[in-house]
Amino acid sequence: MATEVIVAPLYQGSEISTSNRLRLATSPASKKALSSCTSTNQMDPARTKLTTIETKRIISVLDETIRKVELVTLLSAAAYNPENLEGLLEDDIIRAIQDHEDFCNTLLEMENLVREEEEELAESRNPHLQLLLDEHKHSLMLLKEEVKGSARNTLRIFLLNLQAGEILRTQIMGRSEEASVFLQHLIEFRGFVFEKLLTSPMEEKEKNTFMEEIHLQEKKNYDMIQDLEAQLSSTLKARDAEMEKENFVIKELKSHLHQVLKFSENHLLRTKQEAEKQQKAELRASQGRVAKIQQDIHVLRTQYHNIIEENRDSEQTLRKTEYEELAEIHTEEKAQLAELKEKHTVLIQEFVQIREERLINSKKKLEAEKELALMVRAATLIQAFWKGYLVRSLLKSKRKKKKGRGRGKK
């Protein structure tokens, strides 16, 4: 039964008409199932394996359905890419896939034709077109039955030949997006059913209680959000009213500022005219002062040159006297340097002699220490040898005494 639902639309690609596509990803039922799966994951069942035959059969049916969907949704891609299966599948299997694809293409063409005729009929209301449309709809129903039968027969081939089905799954990678979504939802539904079958009535009751608590919490959160939104709305309204007041004040201030700027421009113009008049008067006065200052500068420059000449003569006299004093100091320091060099040479000789004497003394000391260590080691060896000799002599004397006693007893 599940195979009949997905035979026509799921294994096709982008050529499927919009009215025949499955919209599982956006349907409310699929969202509700997915949300239920997400919620129940928070409380996993205690058991991990199915124990009854009925539950095992249910899961077996779902697994078989998933396997059939995997195969059916690859038939179209296999028909468009037969070179991927050449040499891997028998020719009659590839031919069956091609025949099924031909049925499906014919079905799609008939669907498009019926849709176009419906659009034309809606515009023209032609009775002859109505009869033709009814005939084509009847043909479309027959084609759907043929496609279903072809799908069953093609599936039966792969279900009887497991190796062929495995080759189809591994070699063909052209499943449509709608088919992938449906297959994913089917796998999720299988997990949801499996979890439901593992859940005991007590666990189900606990989950329901848990979900009710979550629902109540969500309702409280929703009410809180509504209250916050109402507060936000009132706050926004108050803010808008305040902004209107502020805008009115700003408008008044701008008008006042415009008047102030206009008054300031007139005042600035008058001030500028007065400043220009005062500037011209000050310019004439400053020109007279500049002429007087230039005359004073000329007099001062003449005095400056005279003073420089006088200072140059006195400076030369002072430099000559200073040079003679520096020459005497240099001669005296040069003599002191020669004396220090002589003392330094003597000190170096004494240092070299002392260092050689210390080196000789250290070598003698090292040789004496080595000789002492050698003598100590020799004395230790001699003592050890002597002690061993004494012990062996003592042992020999004891053995002789024991032998003498033994002979006396006999």
Characterize this entry briefly:
The protein is mainly alpha-helical.
Question: What do these coordinates show?
Answer:
10% of the residues are buried. Helix 2 crosses helix 8 and helix 6 crosses helix 7. This protein is 86% helix and 0% strand. The longest helix has 209 residues. It has nine helices and no strands. With 410 residues, the chain is an all-alpha fold.
| Mass-distribution shape | flat
- The helix/strand order is HHHHHHHHH
Distance between the termini: 119 Å
| Number of distinct helices | 9
How is the secondary structure organized here?
Layout: H1 2-6, H2 28-40, H3 53-72, H4 75-80, H5 91-124, H6 127-160, H7 162-171, H8 177-198, H9 201-409
Helix pairs in contact: 2-8, 3-8, 5-6, 6-7
Question: Key features?
Answer:
410 residues, mainly alpha, flat, disordered N terminus
